[in-house]
Write a structure and sequence with these properties.
Elements lengths: L2 H12 L10 H12 L8 E7 L2 E7 L8 E5 L13 H11 L2 E5 L11 H15 L7 E6 L1 H15 L7 E5 L11 H4 L9 H12 L11 H4 L8 E6 L5 H13 L4 E6 L14 H18 L2
Parallel strand pairs: 3-4, 3-5, 5-6, 6-7, 7-8
Antiparallel strand pairs: 1-2, 2-4
Helix pairs in contact: 3-10, 4-5
């Protein structure tokens, strides 16, 4: 393990803006894109495309592509981000698995609040199925808000009578818009990215005035995961959202679903982005790739 690397990352993040000040969403999007552009992106082939009526990016390994499709949902609190901001993670999975990925540019809040993002993700999945791609050969993967979408899109697919995907990988997923997890309190001041005030600000953009006490907004507390595919949840101990993954894993166990809760100590939200700078980031993506190749190859 890399104590020195983790401490260096923590010191770097503490050197950024502290506390929370509301900003216009346009400014937040620019700042988020600028921050994510600093992360390394492995060598892959990318092609702009369309999926389910939305723009998407096809990401392929440079050689030796193997069967399987990763449908990737980017993070950004449901109001920020794009396939480009998540390209480091998407390409990291593609190079490690050899599978292609399609990263979806779903619509963002506040212009398009809940449940628009889920509808876009479900339409993209349905388009793959209609194109003859087997559900068992598709994995949903995503980070942060996109990690939450891997779960809620699967719930929506079940409700629509569609087959569930072959596997789910979620990096630091957001799974509870009631913000009732214990770590929403115990990790205040430890989480270098999020504050409860900041999460409430972007959360209201996505909620659009709707009650968060419903399955598609708070799956960590309310979701029926019966019939779900195997799940891999990766999260760090320095996260307000830690208990979102912990509680969803328990719900998966209760529903007799194969689930791996992969918790790494002393790392921040979506720590997998720090490949090349944090050994745990590369190791976590290696574990995620192994999980995917085992499931998609079955």
């Amino acid at each position: 393990m890399s104590k020195e690397q983790r401490e260096a990352i923590a010191a770097m993040l503490r050197g950024g803006p502290q506390g929370f000040e509301p900003q216009p969403v346009e400014r937040m999007r620019e700042d988020f894109a600028r921050m994510m552009a600093q992360f390394a992106v492995p060598q892959v082939r990318t092609t702009d495309t369309e999926l389910g009526g939305r723009p998407a990016v096809l990401v392929e390994p440079e050689s030796d592509q193997r069967p399987g499709t990763i449908l990737y949902f980017h993070g950004g609190s449901f109001s920020l981000g794009s396939p480009q901001t998540a390209m480091g993670l998407t390409a990291g999975l593609v190079t490690r698995t050899g599978c292609r990925a399609l990263s979806l540019d779903y619509r963002l809040a506040p212009e398009h609040p809940f449940p628009t993002a889920i509808e876009d993700c479900l339409a993209a999945y349905q388009a793959l199925l209609e194109d003859g791609v087997s559900a068992r050969s598709i994995a949903f993967a995503g980070d942060s808000a996109g990690g939450g979408l891997t779960v809620t899109t699967t719930l929506a697919a079940k409700s629509a009578g569609l087959p569930v995907p072959g596997a789910i990988v979620a990096f630091s997923p957001g799974l509870d818009h009631t913000r009732s997890g214990a770590t929403m309190t115990t990790k205040v001041g430890i989480d270098p990215f999020f504050t409860p005030e900041g999460m409430a600000y972007t959360g209201e953009m996505y909620l659009g005035g709707q009650d968060p006490n419903q399955e598609l907004l708070t799956p960590a507390v309310l979701a029926d995961l019966t019939g779900f595919p195997p799940l891999l949840l990766q999260v760090g101990t320095d996260e307000l959202l830690l208990d979102d993954s912990v509680r969803l894993a328990q719900r998966a166990r209760d529903a007799e679903v194969d689930v791996i809760l992969d918790v790494t100590a002393g790392v921040p939200h979506v720590f997998q982005s720090f490949t090349g700078r944090l050994d745990e980031a590369d190791q976590a993506l290696d574990r995620a790739a192994l999980f995917l190749t085992q499931r998609l190859g079955a």
